[in-house]
TrEMBL record:
Gene3D superfamilies: P-loop containing nucleotide triphosphate hydrolases. InterPro entries: AAA+_ATPase, ABC_transporter-like_ATP-bd, ABC_transporter-like_CS, ABC_transporter_ATP-binding, P-loop_NTPase. Residues 2-232 form the ABC transporter domain. The keyword Cell division does not apply. It comes from the Archaea. This is ABC transporter ATP-binding protein.
Length: 302
């Protein structure tokens, strides 16, 4: 379990994190979503014990990353946003070297490494220098490294970036397998459709603050909510007709009917006198929810 507790991080005078808290429970996949510079990587690096917070803490299975770092990070697998490895070392040799940090013997590490390389589609690349790996292959290698100590907790920072569709599929299957095993998984991603598919919970971060934590069931309720968008030449007069079909609101000359009941062809007939331009379902997606949360935050804090 990963517990982020009132975390602050200043880079010089710049406050990158302003007191954030959330949890990743065992058996839970949590999507971490925010714009560029929101503070995702900073949170993940602190949780991996790579940088220190200014204030607050992260606990990994109850161990503090600041006070009990050795025990805390032993149980966490981390894939950095931009993995940096020794470029001139052969991939499997480097894997064995990194495994040494976890007290794994050379022979055991070679055998685990070969198995993980095969699972991650890197078979045949064991003796290639990491410098000659593509970005996606480096991500696959980083994933293999994160799995070496078989940890209970995972921090995946933009792991889908640079992966091809096969790599993305592998990652999804891996994350679901780890979840089934009761591990805690935090993954940041800009690919919101993948977050929607994979996460049990989504934590939204903006300008170093958490602006929303939503369970995927609640997000799904939002995304499947029946909203009809109506564009007509005379929207003010058309509003009355729309009231028969649900709860209409007029926004920028367009009518949005919430809780729509009835059928679109009948609505189209009723609206004919007002000059119909467009009628259709509006599918809310995670992106809309995200931008809604950001606009609420900006209205409150500007
Ligand atoms: N080492 C550093 N020194 C100074 N400022 C930093 C440093 N690392 C990050 N920042 C700043 O802190 C803020 C948060 O950065 P962070 O990398 O955590 O964001 P992010 O949400 O991961 O963004 P992205 O999606 O672009 O990777 C940004 O404004 C960034 O410029």
């Amino acid at each position: 379990m990963i517990t982020v507790n009132n975390l602050y991080k200043n880079y010089g005078k710049f406050p990158a994190l302003k007191g954030i808290s959330f949890e990743v429970n065992n058996g839970e996949i949590v999507g971490f979503v925010g714009l560029n510079g929101a503070g995702k990587s900073t949170t993940i690096k602190i949780s991996a014990g790579v940088i220190l917070p200014t204030k607050g803490d992260v606990e990994i299975d109850g161990y503090s990353v600041t006070k009990d770092k050795k025990k805390a990070v032993r149980n966490v697998g981390w894939v950095p946003e931009l993995p940096i490895f020794e470029p001139n070392v052969k991939a499997l040799d480097y894997f064995v070297y990194l495994s040494g940090y976890y007290g794994i013997s050379t022979s055991e590490a070679r055998s685990i490494g070969k198995k993980l390389f095969a699972e991650l589609g890197l078979s045949g690349w064991e003796n290639t220098k990491l410098d000659n790996f593509s970005q996606g292959m480096k991500k696959r290698f980083a994933l293999a490294v994160s799995l070496v100590s078989n940890p209970n907790n995972f921090l995946f920072d933009e792991v889908l970036n640079g992966l091809d569709p096969q790599g993305i599929q592998f990652f999804k299957e891996l994350a679901l397998r780890l979840k089934k095993d009761g591990r805690a998984i935090l993954f940041s991603s800009h690919i919101l459709s993948e977050v929607e598919n994979l996460a049990d919970k989504v934590v939204f971060i903006h300008k170093g603050k958490i602006i929303g934590i939503k369970k995927i069931e609640d997000l799904r309720k939002l995304v499947t909510r029946k909203v009809i968008k109506v564009v007509v030449n005379d929207p003010n007069s058309a509003l009355k007709v729309c009231e028969k079909y649900g709860k209409p609101t007029l926004i920028n000359g367009e009518i949005f009917i919430n809780d729509f009941e009835g059928d679109i062809p009948s609505l189209a007939v009723d609206l004919k006198p007002y000059g119909v331009v467009e009628i259709g379902y509006l599918r809310e997606n995670l992106e809309n929810v995200f931008f809604q949360l950001i606009s609420e935050y900006e209205k409150t804090y500007q």
